[in-house]
Amino acid sequence: MEKVKLILGEVARISLNRPEKKNALDTQLLTELREAVDQVKNSDARVLILTGEGDTFCAGLDRNLLMSFVDMDIRAFEEAVEFVQKLIYDLRTLEIPVIAAVQRYAIGGGMQLALTADIRIATPGTIFFLREPEFGIIPDMGALYILPRLVGDGVARDMVYTRRQLTAEEAKVIGLVNEIYEDLEKGIEEYTQKLLSVPVHTLREAKKQIEYGWGVSFKESLKSTKEAQLRCIRESLRIFKS
Q1: How do 47-52 and 119-122 pair as beta strands?
Q2: Cβ neighbours of residue 23 under 8 Å, at least 6 residues apart?
Q3: Handedness of CA 148, 170, 58, 138 (dihedral sign)
Q4: Are 46 and 23 in contact (CB under 8 A)?
Q5: Is the N or C terminus of the chain more exposed, i.e. has fewer CB atoms within 10 Å?
Q6: pLDDT (average), residues 108-118
Q7: What are 47's strand-pairing partners?
Q8: Rounded to whole angstroms, how far apart are CA atoms 215 and 197?
Q9: Residue 101 has pLDDT above 90, yes or no
Q10: Of 149, 117, 143, nearest to 131 (Cα)?
Q11: How far is CA 160 from the centre of its chain?
């Protein structure tokens, strides 16, 4: 892979590697990113770090890719959107926790990538905003589903309708950012250690139940949580006795 760096291990790391273009998303980068996510999914990783090389996390869709949509027929456009949405779905539904480590800018598709993560950490002053409406389009990489659940309906509408920009400090107040670190690498290490201190099966069950709970009644969530708790207890006892 050329435009994505992948490191596998207990802590996997996917880095967008197009720093000369502020890690703007083009077809090759998106294809390699999907391949990297597949490799992480099939590995023994316990945590995934998603970050960008250089001084910017991701400036959104590459302008040339965006302009290519003008000449696409409807079917080709649908296929392009479906390809990216499959990537977003696979990233969002990984069984392991994902940390997006964000610096300077997370714009448009870059912000939507960050939204797929379980946890977002950022450097001071990092800017988050959804730029898509500027081009007459809507965010279609998961933001319209995830953002209201993170920051509330009103703030999400404001960010989408007006392209409101948030600093990392503002984003932390409303729950879009979890932690702010002057040194992002130290922040990654610190937060990763928090996650590694919790058993793998516990994190996986907790993540699964949080996601499941959004789409069912409270009663159904409690029932599912009970079943998950029994699995946790059995696995914890197995580990304790081994």
Answers
A1: unpaired
A2: 16, 17, 29, 52, 53, 54, 56, 57, 58, 59, 110
A3: positive
A4: no
A5: C
A6: 97
A7: 11
A8: 29
A9: yes
A10: 143
A11: 18
Q: What is the pLDDT of residue 77?
A: 85
pTM of this structure: 0.94
N-to-C CA span, the chain: 40
pLDDT in tens, 31-87: 999 999 999 999 999 999 999 999 999 999 998 887 777 777 888 889 989 999 999
Contact 54, 23 (CB under 8 A): yes
Phi and psi based region of residue 161 (left: phi greater than 0; alpha: psi -120 to 50; beta: remaining): alpha
Tell me the pLDDT tens digit for each residue of 159-176: 999 999 999 999 999 999
Which stretch of DSSP H or E encloses residue 203? helix 200-213
CB 85 within 8 A of CB 140: yes
Pairing label, strands 4-7, 11-16: antiparallel
**SS3 category, 187:** helix
